[in-house]
Amino acid sequence: MKRGREPIPNVKSAFLLVKCPDCQTERIIFSNSAKDIGCSSCGKKLAESRGGKSLIFVTEAKKLG
């Protein structure tokens, strides 16, 4: 019995370049991070872990790659 073609699954996660709304510092984060992520300079929360996809609190995010 010949095996049919199996499609390669698409990746649903990505690395994001986000900009802090308070101090305009850019940071690279993972969309499915397991920890809460804060800004490295002012400490504002940028993303919160939700088990799967993270809840991202910034208005400007660019997908890398």
Can you walk me through this structure?
It contains no helices and six strands. It is 0% helix and 32% strand. The chain is elongated, with a radius of gyration of 16 Å. It has a three-stranded antiparallel β-sheet, with no helix packed on it. Strands 3-4-5 form a three-stranded antiparallel β-sheet, with no helix packed on it. It has 65 residues and is mostly beta strands. The chain has a single domain, classed as N-terminal domain of TfIIb, CATH 2.20.25. The mean pLDDT is 90.
Q: What can be said about the biggest beta sheet?
A: 3 strands, antiparallel
Broad shape: elongated
CATH superfamily: Ribosomal protein S27
| Strand and helix order | EEEEEE
Distance between the terminal alpha carbons, to the nearest Å? Answer: 39 Å
Strand content: 25-35%
Mean pLDDT, to the nearest integer, reads: 90
- CATH architecture verdict: Single Sheet
Rg of Cα set = 16 Å
CATH topology: N-terminal domain of TfIIb
Helix content: under 10%
Q: Kindly name the structural category.
A: mainly beta
CATH top level is: Mainly Beta
Compute the number of strand runs.
6
User: Taking strands numbered 1, 2, ... along the chain, how are they ordered across the largest sheet?
Assistant: 2-1-6
- Oligomer kind: single chain
Overall number of domains: 1
Low-confidence stretches: none
Our count of helices gives 0
Question: Could you give a quick summary of the protein structure above?
Answer:
With 65 residues, the protein is mostly beta strands.
